[in-house]
From TrEMBL:
The keyword Transmembrane applies. It comes from Sporosarcina limicola. The keyword Repressor does not apply. Keywords: Membrane, Transmembrane, Transmembrane helix. This is Accessory gene regulator protein AgrB. The chain crosses the membrane at residues 12-30, 42-60, 72-91, 97-120, 192-213, 219-238.
Length: 349
């Protein structure tokens, strides 16, 4: 198996993290390494390893998720709590107050996050009112307004994404798909909706059968799986509605494109470097790093009809509001010829 450079670094950081934890565990338990009478220096060294070094190593291993003070503090608190179990009580006695201080800090952070949630609830009616008066789809407008009026905190972003899911699952059934010269659907000539409906049926059947069998074995586990299955059904229903009601739209200055709840993007025309069409686009490797695809899932393998290369990396919003930068977008629409004419016309203006 060939490891990438990134995977090799992750394994290296993981190995160092394991050495840090193991060394701090055995130093207090090996007769060959006696602890001096004044053990405060050794304990302080272990606390620094577990509260500073270990969290930094974990952040380095998961650097693709980004470095934030919140994540560092969370791992620091976990490290200090773990220290209570790694360091024997005899040596830890003078420092037993430290984990409680760390837990208190984490509690303050949780309270601050709850305050942000309350702030979101306060601004929610005004945000919904503005979206109703706006011509932009709520799929794109709602997250932007939440960031502007409330916060860019990851927790708020995730709650906004979940709010959109419940909105599309339960509150959009009377809405009709938008039709126009500048709107192009990605799913109508594919089996995407049928595929999602099939998944919903499979989950419902599995829930009805497996849940009752598991209920006699473990009530807690059966309830957890039931909640997860209900969430999955709601997600797939919302995904169907999102695809059905949000076609690719060519506005005056940029393109808005989405594929369900899992990915969406705004592409300014000024950020487009070049566009590959037809045969050249179909040769694009969709697994290549930095390429996002907006191709509806089908029962057979389909190729992109268009690959848009950007002058600079552009952000796309993914599942649960996570953002990631891409250098190109591979697209497949129901009416490729009409889409090509319309897009080229927008670029010429």
């Amino acid at each position: 198996m060939i490891l990438t450079h990134s995977q090799s670094k992750q394994r290296l950081f993981g190995l160092v993290l394991l050495l840090v934890l193991v060394s701090n565990f055995i130093i207090y338990r090996l007769p060959a390494m006696p602890i001096p009478a004044d053990s405060s220096g050794v304990v302080l060294g272990s606390l620094l390893d577990l509260a500073i070094v270990a969290p930094l190593l974990i952040l380095a291993m998961t650097r693709n998720k980004g470095f934030t003070i919140k994540r560092f503090i969370t791992f620091m608190v976990l490290g200090l709590v773990a220290a209570r179990f790694i360091i024997p009580a005899t040596y830890f006695e003078p420092f037993k107050f430290i984990p409680y201080i760390a837990i208190g800090i984490e509690g303050l952070i949780v309270l601050a996050e709850m305050g942000l949630i309350i702030l979101l609830m306060k601004h929610l009616p005004a945000i919904v009112g503005e979206i109703k008066n706006d011509q932009v789809s709520s799929l794109f407008a709602f997250p932007v307004m939440v960031k502007e009026k409330v916060s860019t905190h990851p927790l708020i972003t995730m709650i906004a994404a979940e709010t959109l899911m419940f909105y599309y699952a339960f509150a959009t059934w009377k809405q009709q798909p938008l039709i126009g010269e500048s709107r192009f659907y990605l799913h109508q000539k594919t089996s995407l909706i049928a595929f999602n409906v099939m998944l919903i049926h499979a989950i419902v059947i599995e829930t009805l059968g497996f849940h009752w069998w598991l209920h006699d074995k473990s009530m807690v586990l059966s309830i957890v799986l039931l909640v997860l299955n209900v969430y999955s059904v709601i997600y797939f229903i919302a995904d169907i509605q999102t695809v059905r009601l949000n076609p690719l739209t060519l506005d005056e200055n940029h393109m808005r494109i989405s594929l369900g709840l899992s990915k969406r993007m705004e592409i300014p025309y000024t950020a487009i470097d070049r566009i590959d069409w037809g045969e050249k686009a179909s040769m694009c490797n969709l697994k290549e790093e930095g390429i996002i695809d907006f191709i509806a899932r089908d029962f057979e393998v389909v190729k992109p009809q268009c690959v848009i290369h950007f002058k600079r990396p552009l952000k796309a919003m993914l599942f649960l509001g996570r953002e990631k930068e891409f250098v190109a977008a591979a697209i497949r629409v129901d009416e490729p010829e009409s889409f090509q004419r319309s897009l080229e016309q927008k670029l010429d203006n």
